[in-house]
């Protein structure tokens, strides 16, 4: 299984231009959810709404799940009229939400190098209040040093133009600014299998620098690090990396992000999120606690 593109960005196409990817944001998901509730309460099917807007049912479905470009203001007004939504506050709120959802994010300047479907992850990560991640192959992208990140990109994107590698590295380092965000605050909790450290990425100075970066990160109040040593034996994370993203508003449900060579998956159903949350909690219980993890990392630094 491929390591997370949230860290690796290892699916950029070779040769030719990449199609502009769609970026899913929390506002898009919220807007879609509200429109779906209004549609269902009004008794309309997706097909009926699609016919009214003269578009495909798949577009309506993607709007309702936040996976399509947000509707234009006139489309929102048409939908609210169709659904019989007379409440002024509801109308104003949805129109404002659609306007905000259409605003470009800081990451838009990197759309030329987004791997397929990674734009959705970027949008969600940028607005997350909490990110919990397990990995059995690599250090998470938010914690990678420039030297380590470059080694990962050059290895996984073998044959790619150096200009593309430089752009992806720039994007990765720009993402790391979220660690210093104060409003809303951002919390990162990463569990790494010992395998992450036993397969060197780069020469000794690169590895040593990465370990030192993790030791520095472990001291930050909003970062929790744990290592899952080989001595713990088999564990529930053997099937690969995954991330849990939580958001500032309680009404915005958590999202699970999983990547494989076959593509990226966004799990949003409550039973899926609950299962992966339980899985993460089991890994927390199996791994070294943060203090023991610091000792482990110091031992690696000496090696």
UniProtKB/TrEMBL annotation:
This is Helix-turn-helix domain-containing protein. Pfam families: DUF5753, HTH_31. Residues 35-89 form the HTH cro/C1-type domain. InterPro entries: Cro/C1-type_HTH, DUF5753, Lambda_DNA-bd_dom_sf. Gene3D superfamilies: lambda repressor-like DNA-binding domains. One of its GO terms (molecular function) is DNA binding.
């Amino acid at each position: 299984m491929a390591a997370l593109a949230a860290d690796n960005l290892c699916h950029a196409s070779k040769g030719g231009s990449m199609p502009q990817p769609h970026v899913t944001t929390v506002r898009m998901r919220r807007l879609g959810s509200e429109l779906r509730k209004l549609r269902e309460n009004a008794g309309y099917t997706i097909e009926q709404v699609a016919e009214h807007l003269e578009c495909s049912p798949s577009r309506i479905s993607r709007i309702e799940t936040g996976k399509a470009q947000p509707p234009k203001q006139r489309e929102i007004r048409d939908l609210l009229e169709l659904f019989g939504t007379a409440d002024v506050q509801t109308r104003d709120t949805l129109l404002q939400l659609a306007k905000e959802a259409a605003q470009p994010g800081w990451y838009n300047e990197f759309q030329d190098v987004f791997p397929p479907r990674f734009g959705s992850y970027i949008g969600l990560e940028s607005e997350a209040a909490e990110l919990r991640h397990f990995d059995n192959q690599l250090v998470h992208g938010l914690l990678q040093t420039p030297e380590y990140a470059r080694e990962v990109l050059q290895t996984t994107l073998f044959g790619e133009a150096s200009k593309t590698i430089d752009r992806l590295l720039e994007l990765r380092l720009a993402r790391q600014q979220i660690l210093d965000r104060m409003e809303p605050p951002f919390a990162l909790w990463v569990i790494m299998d010992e395998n992450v450290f036993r397969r060197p990425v780069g020469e000794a100075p690169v590895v040593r620098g990465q370990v030192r970066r993790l030791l520095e990160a472990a001291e930050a109040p909003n970062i929790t690090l744990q290592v899952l040593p080989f001595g713990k034996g088999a564990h529930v994370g053997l099937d690969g990396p995954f991330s849990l993203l939580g958001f500032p508003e309680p009404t915005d449900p958590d999202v699970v992000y999983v990547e494989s060579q076959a593509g990226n998956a966004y799990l949003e159903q409550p039973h899926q999120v609950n299962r992966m949350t339980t899985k993460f909690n089991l890994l927390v219980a199996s791994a070294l606690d943060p203090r023991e993890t610091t000792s482990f990392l110091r031992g690696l630094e000496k090696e």
